[in-house]
Design brief:
single chain, 17% strand, eight-stranded mixed β-sheet, 415 residues, alpha/beta, five-stranded mixed β-sheet
């Protein structure tokens, strides 16, 4: 007896029924392995998210199960942010915790950590609704949320409570977060079931993150990620790194998204293995020369590079003329408001050539509110020629008397 198309369609399960049955079987499998997942987060990441964690990532996730506070200081491109993304989903779906993530800039929140969260969440049948920096629509009001840690508004961390008493708070690039904001963040992890995870590059030799990683009596469980502990450096010693040719080092780059031996070698060649830059970026250790005795501390430069300001306000250029081929450089800096738009340095010993180079770098006079030049010595001639060409020049005399004679010796110090 043949079945008509109508009777055949009634005898087959619908797509919705198939999906429901697959979801039921998957839930049963996960339930059977629930005890394992509570002890082995890496197994959950493999079975559910389809990702294989490197050893140090598995170590971090396991450390969160047994410690209320964990701090991870890592070398450059170590996979720590990806590990944070796995932690967001694991704590939300396995441990039934509310998850809050934060970082100093919107770029770090949206385009790094939560970009990885979104990629891991998609296509794996996880319940709830995913927005750009939020997962919601779960039972008991559970959710995961990411937002910028505004250094001027610590109060925005108030009011977050987990309905289950379980909470994971993640601070990404924690070395850059101001102490006032960090104190507010710590209040989120005040309940007995709350865990605080700080991760970042070891850039700043002060503040919560530094002390969490380095104090002998710290209440944090500290983990350091050295480039030589990552897969691309397997079997490679520092001595071999320095002696190998750069072409030989190419063969070690098994995972292209992690720090490469070739890049580490370039850092060693440029800065030296005793430099703070090499210590921080390659070895994952805090610098030795970043203390208060430094005039411009590296951590300040790193923090300034992360800050974003509205592109508004007057557009100005500052010019310091060093008219000598063998001496000081001529330096031209362009800014708008609090944003650095460009900085150029060159050596020329002819004022006419300097003026021509400056005009080619600046563009049009009408685009600038002011071009400021130190007019002591060779700077005056350059100033006068630019002014004659229609540029909005402002003459500065760095040796002139300061406005505040109590605090400053001359105008240069006051600037």
């Amino acid at each position: 007896m043949s079945l008509s198309p109508a009777r055949l369609s009634r005898s087959l399960p619908s797509n919705a029924d198939v999906k429901a049955e697959l979801a039921r079987r998957r839930a049963a499998k996960l339930s059977d392995r629930g005890a394992l997942y509570l002890e082995e987060p890496a197994s959950w990441a493999s079975d559910v998210l389809g990702v294989t964690l490197i050893a140090v990532q598995a170590q971090i996730l396991k450390a969160l199960n047994g410690n209320r506070r964990v701090a991870v200081a890592a070398c450059h491109t170590s996979g720590k942010t990806f590990c944070n993304a796995v932690a967001v989903l694991y704590w939300l779906y396995v441990r039934g915790a509310m998850v809050v993530t934060t970082a100093l800039s919107e770029n770090l929140v949206k385009n790094q950590l939560w970009r990885d969260v979104g990629r891991l969440w998609s296509g794996h049948g996880l319940p709830g609704n995913l927005l750009q920096t939020e997962i919601s629509g779960l039972p008991n009001g559970l959710m995961a949320l990411g937002f910028k840690a505004a250094d001027y508004d610590p109060g925005r961390f108030a009011g977050f409570h987990s309905p289950t008493g379980q909470m994971l708070v993640i601070v990404d690039e924690a070395s850059e977060v101001p102490d006032g904001v960090m104190e507010a963040v710590k209040t989120l992890a005040s309940s007995e079931g709350a865990v605080l995870l700080l991760t970042g590059n070891p850039l700043r030799t002060s503040g919560e993150f530094y002390h969490a990683c380095t104090d002998l009596d710290s209440i944090y469980h500290a983990i350091f990620i050295d480039a030589f502990d990552t897969p691309n450096f397997a079997g490679l010693t520092e001595d071999e790194l320095l002696k190998s040719s750069k072409s030989e080092l190419l063969g070690f780059n098994q995972l292209p998204y992690l720090i490469s031996p070739l890049w580490a070698r370039e850092v060693a060649d440029e800065y030296g293995i005793e430099s703070d830059y090499y210590r921080m970026r390659v070895r994952g250790r805090f610098g030795l020369r970043g203390g208060v005795e430094s005039i411009v501390r590296l951590e300040w430069v790193e923090q300034a590079n992360e800050r974003l300001f509205p592109l508004s306000g007057p557009k100005e250029a500052g010019l310091d003329v060093g008219a000598s081929l063998g001496g000081d450089e001529t330096v031209l800096t362009i800014r708008q408001g609090m944003n650095l738009l460009g900085q150029h340095a060159f050596r020329l010993d002819d004022e006419v050539e300097i003026v021509a180079r400056v005009e080619s770098l600046l563009g049009r006079p009408k685009d600038y509110d002011a071009v400021k030049v130190d007019t002591i010595g060779v700077g005056k001639g350059v100033h006068d020629m630019l002014k004659a060409k229609g540029w909005p020049m402002v003459a500065l005399n760095s040796s002139a008397e300061p406005g505040d004679k109590v605090r400053f010796v001359n105008y240069r110090d006051e600037m």
